[in-house]
Task: structure prediction
Amino acid sequence: MYPLLLTIFFSVPADTTLPAQVELESITITAAANDPNKHISGSAVILTQKELMIFDQSDANTLLQNQPGVYAQQEDGWGLRMNVGIRGTGTLRSSRITLMEDGILTAPAAYSAPEAYYTPVIWKYEQIEVLKGAAQVITGPQSTGGALNFITPTHDGDGQEILVGGGTFGQQKAYWRGQKAWGNRTQVQYGAYHHSADGFGELLNNTTGGFKLQDWYFKVVHHLDDKDRHHLHWFSAATRERSEQTYLGTTLEDAIERPSLRYLASANDQMDMDRLMNRLGYTLNFNQGFLRADLYRQYVHRNWYKLDKVNGQGITSVLQQPTDYPVEFLAIQGVYSDTALATLKANNRYYISQGLQLRGQWSQRLERNILKHEAGLRFQYDHADRFQHSDSYSIVGAQMALQSHGAAGAAGNWIDATSAASGYYRTTWTRGSWKVQAGGRSEFIFASREDFGSADPERTGINTSERANRTFIFLPGMSVNKQTEQWNIFAGIHRGFTPAGSKEGVLPELSISTEFGLEHTQHPLQLVAFHSAYDRLLGSDAASAGGSGSGELYNGGSALITGMEGQFSHHIQNHQFTFSGTWTRAVFTESFSSEFEGWGNVEKGDVLPYLPQGQASLRYDIQLKQINFSVQSQLLGARKSAAELDQWDLPAALVMNAAISVPLRPSTTLKLSAQNLTNTRHVVAARPAGYRTFAPRMLLLTLQVKF
Result:
């Protein structure tokens, strides 16, 4: 166990009053899971692997929505599309938060295409860190609401674990993972995962919406010496998804009456996605700190082949106003007796993300004062390469027939590329029960687009157009902690930021965020108030938001977000109760008109879309001898799918999950889990195009063996 926690004090051997050195083979952002606020200023949530696996959920949206200050929007019912926001940032494609894996940016193109589809396959993670407040100074580029850091396994020694299971809707799940020590200096971790299902969608009396998902990882940590000073780290991971997923939802009436309905025109929709990540790291440990260097490269290819238009009308418009497009709506349903022309677009894109990340930490004592200095640099290049085409299909009644293949590149033929250099410095001063943390982050971003045009598939450059946008920003942050005998009291303020993209004249989104909270030192109790003032909100013309799919960013008005979040856990003998809740008031503070589907014609005081005013989670766990039983209730408040709406079209809902595990022998466990126990089929979203509902009740039976 080798690299070190980014936010821990490192000891000088002769000075035992400094906190002891802690080593992990994956750099984390927070401190130890059992005491997150001991080493950071501000609020944070750490989900351990045990918590992640309680209900055998594969949906990161459902898991993360249980946490205070975290919002999620369901989309496909299986967790293949993660839509998560933190403290009012918005949930669309998790594009307004920073996603990391072992402290390394893990989105396909965090700068060039933050809304690109990426969902970490959570089975393999040892823990997930949810960062909020001024702690974001060391993450970026998205730094308004928060960040998620997914931590890969850090186990020592030898061990294996196998899980096999099956459930409703043809669900199959299996994984194999383990670790092995090779000699005294080398540790290897590895794992492979398979998850598939037939789906629960109903299309012309046939089942659709199925998927196959494979994921694997391989990790090597090697000591270069016997003094625990020099270490090499290699990590490789790959993911493959093949799924019958669609952008096409239904009307609100159909979503309520037939929640599993899929329209005929979505019959050929399919997502193909492949991802490969490789990282090479080196760590130098010394008495008062560490230095760490990571070289990384990630490749992602995805092609979502899906319905785009009918008779030239975009599917979002048809589903929003079916009475205005009666012919097109009948054709989509598969009940139009004449011929309609459907356009299916191959949203074919290649993403590259690569860079070098350097970070270090050094601690010193000056009489009664402890100073910890942290600094880091990151040089990243990423790009999103669109090379898309559209095919034409005829729709006659319940039949779709291919008419012609579109020309390669004719539906999008450009590259968005970004070169970014960022750095941070933070110092933490500790004296007695006081801790003051202050620092700043700088981002220099050069974003560009090279558009080759629809008539140049060979990319000869004959009709190429170019554009570029530069951003340089400094983002300060500060927090204060005061610890009493029973309470840890903290407050923080920081400047938030969202990159502006490559379009000239578009400015980055800025915000000022503050928090004030207290945490009990003996009991798991935390309560935090937060406040964020947004300026120049950024909207995206993404197809996933109901737009054209160009991905253009543009500035909107300002907004104000205030809220309270809290969590509490209590033991009574072998019973445990765990509660978390969030109340949020998120409103626009000026009027403006926008073509962004989620905003529309905004009036001052309108609420931000897809943000509930209240949400809560209550979990009850009981252990009877060796049998463990857990039940969870998730309450989600009503939301609006667009700010300009008068009604709350996404209703409040209560969802229950349950699980029971029975040990058959010391190394073997049988488990039955139920998601959405009451089969609540409430409407969860009105995007990408049309309404969609929460997944039906799912049962999963698994057998886990450790040896």
